Amino acid sequence: MLSIKNLHVSVGDKPILKGINLEIKAGEIHAIMGPNGSGKSTLSHVLSGKEGYTVTEGSATYQGKDLLEMAPEIRAREGVFLAFQYPVEIPGVSNIYLLKAALNSIRKHHGQPEVDAMDFLTLVKEKVRLLEMDEKFLYRAVNEGFSGGEKKRNEILQMAILEPRLCIMDETDSGLDIDALKIVSEGVNSLRSPERSFVMVTHYQRLLDYIKPDFVHVLAHGQIVKSGGADLALELEEKGYSWVEEAAA
Amino acid sequence: MTMATASRYAAEYQTIAPALPGQNLPWLQVLRRDALEKFSAQGFPSPREEEWRYTNVSGIEKKLFSPSISLTAGDVNADWLKAYQLQDAWVLVLVNGHFSAELSVLDGLPEAVSVMGMADALAKHPAKLEKYLGKAADQSEHSFIAFNTAWFSDGLFVHVPTKQVLDKPIQLLHIVTGADAMATTRNVIIADEMAEAKLIETYVGKDSAYLTAAVTEVFVGQNTDLTLYKMQSESEKAYHFGGSYIKQARDARFTHHNFAFGGLLARSDIHVDLDHASECELNGLYLGVKRQHIDNHTRINHLKPYAISRELYKGVLDDRARGVFQGRVIVAVDAQKTDSQMNNRNLLLSDDAEADTKPQLEIYADDVKCGHGVTVGQLDEKSIFYLQSRCVDEETARNMLTFAFANEMVDKVKIKGLHDMVLEQVLARFPQEGVNKEWL
After folding, report:
1. How far apart, in whole angstroms, are the C-alpha atoms of residue B156 and residue B170?
2. Best residue in A45, A98, A110, A125 to probe B by mutation, most B CBs within 10 Å?
């Protein structure tokens, strides 16, 4: 699905990522953990194509294609989905309009006709129910005036409708209370499939109580310093990050 | 130069004066003579005047626009008219500054409501007009008001009597068809106590250089609810000077929507006087492309206690266009418990576009709640990336965000036909690739 090889990324003159290697196969869930400033967010931003980052070395190959060459919207249409840590408010653009525009962009990209209006509405309403959202959210401006939990739920709704292959979740648990965390996690779990992979970028182990990862990687100083199974997350929770950072140094 | 132009107009005035309406009315003769003197003394406004510092009108001085003496409606094409004429409304049409009964649609208008051309009104209701004409617009403070008072050739008159509720809007459609024409119209709108009405002023013209100099005076009676829409979509070579002067009685509600789209140089003045516990809402959207210069100038006078004013003006400026917003809120010493909020937001789409914004609060009372906010900025890069990450290409994302910014003001229009007309005008001015008209 995704193969990252020796990836080096700088912001301005400052190197942030210093040789990341990561192999993600279809159906796998990988958690990327690490302390603040370790480069976690940079990794998710570079993979989704945000401006302001320079790749100085290395590669990221997605389904056999050079991911880093693609414009952000092409990555999205090819099935890469970034769930934002801070979803952006877009006054004047309704949720349902954006969903329709996004879905039709994907279909066009794959040479398919536009979605039928009635089928679309049925699909959207079904997903809204699944995520225990109010239908009124569809007609409100994207994320405008939403609570933290509502914004994150809205990200999962988009994911459920756009059906991406690779989901990059950037600090999805931040700003969520326990109830919202459960609903979001159930949403993600319902989307798990042998064809779909997840990269969960998170500071805390909390989210991983609800979404069980296959692999856990610890990022420190721009490198993956330790990899392991789900147990590694528990160990980190108990001991903090200092022991892995020290062990790596 | 200003003065030379003024005296050229003044010299020509003598030949035109006999044909102007209401010449048999002594009070109007006095008013016109006074206006002519004021205009001759001041000329057109100069950028040295504070209220005109961002807007140089010297362009209109290079030409001598000529007022048409009579109606020549012959060259108004019916198809073209249809694009601007609202269905499901009573429509009054003015061509080159003259009322055309033939083109107007007034079927089914309640008998108690008076709707007619200004020349006819001066003949039929001179006593009523004497009480209102010139009472909201002060010709000593603004030389375009003086110019209009001296020269107005016709205009529209609307009187909605007490307790009358109009179930359809009245459209005042101003059309200019001739090159170098001058359309100088004076409109008076009176809504007595406890009435309810919606009026729509539309200013359009054929593709040529012409001058619109319009003054609309509005009197909103006690407990009356009046909404006035103005859509200015003049030709891109035209000059538009339009002033709306509103006097609100106690407990009156007034809402104004100002859509400033056309003209090479367009200036609108909206002045509102608020009496005890009255409320006004001023909404504005101005779009500038190419080399357009669009100026909106509002003034809200809180004269008495407990009045509420809300104002939001938004501007989108592309190419080398320039937008000006000057908003003044004046709270008189008696106007305690005033509640006023003014906002102006500008979106610049090119490096060469310019927005000049100047909110002014002048507060003489001590127990009031007044606020204002101003922004001038570009499209938010975070929003563009968010949309891109949701499969939308960058150009479409920019178009969507631009449209969304403007659409907030379009959405406030609750008259279907007008909403769609305004929407068309917005879409016609900016790239609409990816912007779906059936915006949900």
Report:
1. 11
2. A98
Answer whether residue B427 is part of any domain: yes
C-alpha to C-alpha distance for A53 and B186, rounded to whole angstroms: 60
Provide residues of B within 8 Å CB-CB of chain A: 380-383, 385-394, 396, 400-401, 403-405, 407-408, 434, 436, 439-440
How many domains are contained in chain B?
2
So what's the pLDDT on residue A42? 93
pLDDT higher than threshold 90 for residue A148 = no
Interface confidence, given as ipTM, is: 0.94
The CATH number covering residue A28 comes to 3.40.50.300
The minimal CB distance from A102 to the residues B391, B403, B408 is found for: B391
Pick from A91, A100, A103: which is nearest to B404 by CB? A91
Put simply, the answer to whether B386 touches A48 (Cβ < 8 Å) is no
CB B302 within 8 A of CB B273: no
CB-based contact A185:A173 (threshold 8 Å): no
**What are the angstrom distances between the C-alpha of B334 and each of A90, A160, B219, B299, B342?**
42, 59, 22, 18, 20
CB contact under 8 A, B389 and A87: no
Q: How many domains does chain A have?
A: 1
Ranges of residues in chain B whose predicted pLDDT is under 70 = 1-3, 69-75, 434, 436-440
pLDDT digits (tens, 9 = 90+) for A162-199: 999 999 999 888 878 888 888 889 888 999 999 999 99
Structure tokens, B277: 């516990």
Q: Find the CB nearest B383 among A81, A90, A94.
A: A90
How many CB pairs lie under 8 A apart between chains A and B? 83
Residues 179-238 of A with CB under 8 A from B: none
Provide the shortest C-alpha distance from residue A101 to chain B (in Å).
7
